[in-house]
Amino acid sequence: MSDFERELQHALRRREPPRDLTPAVMARIEAPPKREPLFRRWFVGFYWRQALAAAAVALVLAAGIDRYREYRRGQEAKQQLLLALQITGQKLAVVQAKVDKLNRRSIGHDQ
User: The domain containing residue 67 runs over which residues?
Assistant: First the structure.
């Protein structure tokens, strides 16, 4: 048998409770629980952790929403830029065609 098994057997063996334990347990059961003032429970107890966690979640959510809006504005600007470049390319093609036509006419006219 290993040391671990011996220690486990020793820890789990049955023991009788002390004789004077009953009055202490009964007094604890019958006594009303002590309630701290609401102010102390809110600021010192568990509630401040919940409030801090909620504030952190709200901050992360707000930052995420802001980043998404910025991303969307960037995507819209990209689409507008691509459209502007497409229109500019078309207009330049029209101008180039006119310049080529004028060049051909003047070259053909000179001969």
Answer: 3-110
User: How many structural domains are present in the chain?
Assistant: 1
| 3-state SS, one letter per residue, for the chain | CCHHHHHHHHHHCCCCCCCCHHHHHHHHHHCCCCCCCHHHHHHHCCHHHHHHHHHHHHHHHHHHHHHHHHHHHHHHHHHHHHHHHHHHHHHHHHHHHHHHHHHHHHHHHHC
76-87 as b/e: b if 16+ CB within 10 A: eeeeeeeeeeee
How confident is the model at residue 91, as a pLDDT?
Answer: 96
Q: Is 96 exposed, middle or buried (0-12, 13-18, 19+ CB in 10 A)?
A: exposed
Cα–Cα distance, 37 to 47 (Å, whole number): 13
In degrees and rounded to multiples of 5, residue 62 shows phi and psi of -65, -40
Higher pLDDT, 93 or 103: 93
